[in-house]
Amino acid sequence: MNPQTPLSRSLALLLSLLLLAPQLSAQGVTEIAPIPPPANSLLRPYLAPEAPPIRIANSPRLAALLRGGNLYLTAHDAIALALENNIDLEIARYSPILADWRVTRALAGGALPGVPSGAGQAASFASGQGVLGSQAAAGVSGGGGAGGGGGRSNATVSQVGPVVQTLDPTIQQATTFSHRSNPQSNVTQSLTNNLISRQRAYSGSFQQGFLTGGSVTVSYSHYFLEENSPTNLLNPSVALNVSIMVQHNLLQGFGTAVNGRNIKVAKLNRNISDIDFETQVSSTVVSVLRAYYKLVADEEDLRAKQDAANTAAEYLRETRQRVADGIAAELDITTAQSQLAAARRDLIISRTTFSQDETQLKNLISRNGVQDPALRDARIITLDKLEVPDRDNLPQIHELTSKALAGRTDLQSQTARIETSRVSAIGTKNGLLPTAQVFAITRQSGLAGVQRQAPRGDGFQTADPYFAGGVGTALGQVFRRNYPTEGAGVFFRNVFGNNQAQADYAIDQLQLRQSQLTGAKSRKQVEVDVRNAVIAIEQARARYEAARENRILAAELLEAEQKRLRLGASTPFNVLQQQRDLTVARSGEITAMVAYRNAHIVLERSLGTVLQSNGITISEAMSGRVEQPARRP
To answer: Strand (E) positions, 23-169?
Structure first.
């Protein structure tokens, strides 16, 4: 079976629609996809599918992790909550569904080839039918009205150029009833100065377009006419017309490549929507990991600042005791108070920073953020700690670069978009050709009515008995092909200079070349990104090792100073200074550990391995349900 025939295309579309439901169910997006109306297959296409309301409630995982006013989180739980509740991901889930419907729309083809109007049938009659039809056939018309022919009431507007035919079969039907009074300035033919006619017109058509660039139209018309003219030999009368018209593009708009480009682009965009969704998931995971480990660092920094404030308070107490014992001056109390004020200031800053970063993480892992009272008042307790391994076992740069070129979704999306531009350019290239169409039409007519006698000279005239009868008589004439009309022809149109089409195609080509160069630039930048990420890891490790050594030395100096104080060889102020140095060293080490963790996140993002490194599947991200249960505190 030819895959481009209307029958096979319709079967393929039906099969894809039947398979769409289980596919969406597997992807878990049935909760937000439009729901087909509850009707049989014949009525369903004419009823509107209803999109479910938006989901604004958080997943049960969030409540499971809340205990005693605290939200206990591991990094994996934070990611799982984001996959289930993040608003940006929920918005992104609609894109593949929208792309599916755009594919369905593209499979239907372009604008309707013919646009019959029921209003055009009012007061319609066939050529030769009645007085008005006889006047129209003779090229004259009576006063007060213009006749209409069967061929003009439902003229087909043929498409030209690379506009895609309508690929869905189309059936049209129109019925009109009219009553007319036409004043006759010349009563020679009608023998009445007021020609009154009662009319009914029925017409219909079936249209089918093809991807090759042609279409077939089968149409019929049925006119009933009753007049008050005594000269009408068939009154009332019926006139029938049945026609078949075939037209096909020969140059512009010819071929499945140009007419199927919109379908191919829609399918490419469907794949792009999946790639973009994966990119959005990766970005969200990166944001969650950064926010989570920033909060871990804030907790460590808060402990360090709390220890410094406690030491300063202890120093102030001891200073006051030394002043009371007469072994210290009053000025030492002022110095101790200043040290305590500075420590409390740093503690407040650390607390507010923790609160800000906590709010940011809450916003990432929930649909309504701090608007939820239970989440707003909850304190996040991080269960994972910052760790730096003893060594980094990184592959060679060329291996990492190859991995990035194969796994980066932004590169895949860029390549797919270049392909859509190339496919779309097929249409503008085809538009350079002149317009040439071949068409053929065959029409069968029939006429019948009630015989009447009309005065003619000295006697009377009667209609030919062959026309006596009703609809059956007229149908017999149609099927016997008693009055056939056939025609064929070629339509040609050419624009000299063709500047508009030349400019359109040149613009498309230049934009395509720009996109290709941008893609080459992005691929070239991959190695730079990988190298920079590896260098950043090396630098972060060096900073961490230096900060770690500094923290160890600061701890040893504090311990030595405390021993000297116990032996009476030092002062509380010296101990306080060493404690402050240790606090600064601890903060530096925490900052270095966060920098190291972020450098690894940047490398994973440069390689396109964020999801694999964190055990995330696209099916879980699409469904918004992570299979692994929450770790209960």
So the answer is: 66-67, 70-73
* Any domain includes 593: no
CA distances from 619 to 90, 454, 604, 609 (A): 14, 83, 20, 16
Which residue's structure tokens are 């019948």?
448
Q: Please provide the average confidence, as pLDDT, over all residues in the chain.
A: 83
Helix axes of 94-107 and 6-27: crossing angle, nearest 10 degrees: 170
Q: Say if residue 454's pLDDT is above 50.
A: yes
Are 241 and 221 in contact, with CB atoms under 8 Å apart? yes
Lowest-pLDDT range, 34-43, 130-139, 400-409, 584-593? 130-139
Residues 632, 625: Cα–Cα separation, whole Å: 17
Residue 9 belongs to domain spanning: 1-48
Phi, psi of 491 (to 5 degrees): -110, 135
Confirm whether 296 is domain-assigned.
no
* Cα gap 165→257, rounded to integer Å: 13
pLDDT category of residue 572 using cuts at 50, 70 and 90: confident
Pick the closest to residue 198 from 144, 124, 128 (CA basis).
124
Question: Residues 6 or more apart from 387 whose CB is under 8 A from it?
Answer: 593
pLDDT in tens, 321-344: 888 888 778 888 888 899 899 999
End position of a domain, from candidates 493, 518, 533? 493
pLDDT tens per residue across span 181-240: 888 777 766 678 888 888 999 999 999 999 999 999 999 999 999 888 887 788 888 999
CA 565 centroid distance within chain: 71
